[in-house]
């Protein structure tokens, strides 16, 4: 099995519940083994500021999907949750991003790994540092190091973690 990092985000239609349900949906995928999830965090929007705050979380999972198969599965879950892609950084019911896939460097028209902006985003790095502080993200350092550099501006704990699926 390969190790992958998945980021969860929502700011529409009861975002905390959207994230909880999405965690269940991802953990139910047939080629997902163990899944360890962070707490839920309330975060201010990035890019397009005129929208509600987000609820974000991160999971570290073991999977037998390839990176592209996993992306397809995550996009199908987004669609089931009513995801609309009206414009970049728009409000959304659910956003699922692959942040890293087994420390592999990968680039296609639809997927770049590791995620090219994850190391700039507290809403990814703070939750990742919570569950896997020593996880290295490309050449940027460990999750704990990156999270410390980014700080806590615009992010606060919303709800402690309670969703973990054992293999």
What does this structure look like?
The chain is of the alpha+beta class. It has one domain (2-165): Alpha-Beta Plaits (2-Layer Sandwich). It is 27% helix and 28% strand. Strands 1, 2, 3, 4, 5, 8 and 9 form a 7-stranded antiparallel sheet that branches. Strands 6-7 form a two-stranded antiparallel sheet. The relative contact order is 0.24.
Topology:
Blueprint: E1 2-10, H1 15-27, E2 32-37, E3 40-43, E4 54-63, H2 67-80, E5 95-101, E6 106-107, E7 112-113, H3 122-131, H4 143-150, E8 155-159, E9 164-165
Antiparallel strand pairs: 1-4, 1-5, 2-4, 2-9, 3-4, 3-8, 6-7
Helix pairs in contact: 3-4
Give short descriptive properties of this protein:
single chain; 167 residues; alpha+beta; Alpha-Beta Plaits; seven-stranded antiparallel β-sheet; two-stranded antiparallel sheet; 4 helices; 27% helix
What is the gyration radius calculated from CA atoms?
14 Å
- pLDDT averaged over residues: 91
Q: Please give the number of β-strands.
A: 9
Q: Please tell me what the overall shape is.
A: globular
CATH architecture classification name:
2-Layer Sandwich
